Amino acid sequence: MTPRSALLAALAGALAIGAACSRPSAGSPDGPSIRLTLPPDGAERAFIEVVGLSSDDLHALSAARRSTEQWTSLLRVSVGDDAPPMLGTYSVTRSAIRFTPAFPLDPGRQYEARVDLASLPHSDGHGPRSGMILTTVSRPALATTPSTVMAPVYPSADVLPENHLPFYLQFSGPTDLPAGLDHVHLLDAHARKEKAPFLPPHATL
């Protein structure tokens, strides 16, 4: 190899290295996504993360001083589309944007998580992006058994006089009268609920 060829080869190698170093680091090939993480030991709260962003995006977010409104415009978590955003804290890890709710998530309840990519910093030099990621996340529901159930109802005959007034409902355990009465219904012959068939609690005849 002549000195001129060696010099050209060295320059080409240096240019290739420089281009590789200046190329923005890519995120996930499938793009950003949202996931719910449940700590295995239960000592920490569940949190919601946006993964699949490039390291340049994460670095730009970490370096910026964003207000709560700006974070919410990027990642919004709520109990429904019309509900206000949940309270919590935002942070940037080495691989994700993390939202930790101020209060524990209710087991079995659906939460809506939305990411607006247009709210990301313009870290790649290509201007603003567009697109919305929307998903629902939830903690597993707890298996519950009713602590109090309906026991016999008196009178227990199949046919009663039309003007019969008192009914006696017996429960297997203590229950609050106003709240319990909301779950007791009187049906007519067509299985339709009668309107206000019971006297108000503590009323006397």
- Name of the top-level CATH class of the largest domain: Mainly Beta
Round the Cα radius of gyration to an integer and report it: 31 Å
Largest sheet: 4 strands, antiparallel
Low-confidence stretches: 6-26
**Strand adjacency order, main sheet:** 1-2-5-4
Kindly report the average pLDDT value. Answer: 77
Percent of residues in helices: 10-25%
Report on this structure:
Helices cover 20% and strands 22% of the residues. With 205 residues, it is an alpha+beta fold. The chain contains 4 helices and 9 strands, in the order αββααβββββββα. The chain has 2 domains: 113 residues, Immunoglobulin-like (Sandwich), CATH 2.60.40.1220; 61 residues, no CATH class. The strands form 3 sheets. A 4-stranded antiparallel sheet has the order 1-2-5-4. Strands 3-6-7 form a 3-stranded antiparallel sheet. It is elongated, with a radius of gyration of 31 Å. About 10% of the residues have low confidence.
